[in-house]
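Tokens in:
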């Protein structure tokens, strides 16, 4: 008999140690520190050499800021939300994404948001909505907007696509697509993960964040991506949202040999399926 709930975890208690092994990406990728160092170094160089405006405010908090790197011509905009389990990292690690896209005629905005434990994940979703409204208003020439994000930022892409009608105050017909990379869309395991010391989720608040069983309110197509060398759970998370949000999901990319951090390289490398499929969103499917 077919599983009536494919891609969901079995009912019953989950093993805390198993959750930790599956979701602790820094432990799974012990050589992540040099990756972070490269991201920060390359991003600093980009901010010094690529035309852009840094720390544009979209709200009162010090982290209500985004950086904007405009393309010389064109009406295309890529918006990126960083990861860090809603509790770490910063937009300054991700300026390195901009040059490849700017060279292709796509402006790039990289947004910060408040972090746990100062706020809750629901507040961060509110920040993502506020950032999108502000960016869309400032870059009014952008007629084709693709929203992307990695890890926690991937969840924010999904949350934006499922935001209640009216929360996005610009014409959502301008949204050409979404690219959640290695996102979390089923929060059931997260209360057992060590990072929950900052997230402070219980079973009910985690369930309220689930996206896989919500109906998108933004109709644009999505490209869902995950590293082929990521944990079984991160693969399941991307497969789950791709399954539940079809046919809106135009491609599910499981990128061979890439882990939770190196998967981001595929976002900027021409010829990589993630880059090419993301770029194709600007030109209609």
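Residues out:
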């Amino acid at each position: 008999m077919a599983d009536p709930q494919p891609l969901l975890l079995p009912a019953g208690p989950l093993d805390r140690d198993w959750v930790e092994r599956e979701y602790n990406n820094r432990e799974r990728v012990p050589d992540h520190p040099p990756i972070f160092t490269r991201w920060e170094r390359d991003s600093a160089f980009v901010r010094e050499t690529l035309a852009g405006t840094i720390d544009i405010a979209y709200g009162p908090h010090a982290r209500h800021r985004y950086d904007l790197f405009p393309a010389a011509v064109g009406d295309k905009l890529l918006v990126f939300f960083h990861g860090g389990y809603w509790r770490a990292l910063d937009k300054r690690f991700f300026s390195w994404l901009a040059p490849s896209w700017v060279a292709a005629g796509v402006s790039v905005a990289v947004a910060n948001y408040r972090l746990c434990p100062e706020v809750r994940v629901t507040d961060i979703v509110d920040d993502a909505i506020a950032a999108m409204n502000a960016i869309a208003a400032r870059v009014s020439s952008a007629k084709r907007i693709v929203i992307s994000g990695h890890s926690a930022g991937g969840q924010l892409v999904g949350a934006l696509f499922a935001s209640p009608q009216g929360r996005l105050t610009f014409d959502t017909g301008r949204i050409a697509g979404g690219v959640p990379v290695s996102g979390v869309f089923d929060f059931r395991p997260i209360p057992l993960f060590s990072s929950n010391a900052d997230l402070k989720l219980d079973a009910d608040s985690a369930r309220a964040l689930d996206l896989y069983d919500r109906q998108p309110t933004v109709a644009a197509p999505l490209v869902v991506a995950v590293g082929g060398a990521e944990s079984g759970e991160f693969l399941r998370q991307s497969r789950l949202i791709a399954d539940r949000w079809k046919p809106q999901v135009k491609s599910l990319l499981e990128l061979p040999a890439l882990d939770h951090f190196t998967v981001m390289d595929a976002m900027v490398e021409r010829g990589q399926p993630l880059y090419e499929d993301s770029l194709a969103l600007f030109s209609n499917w």
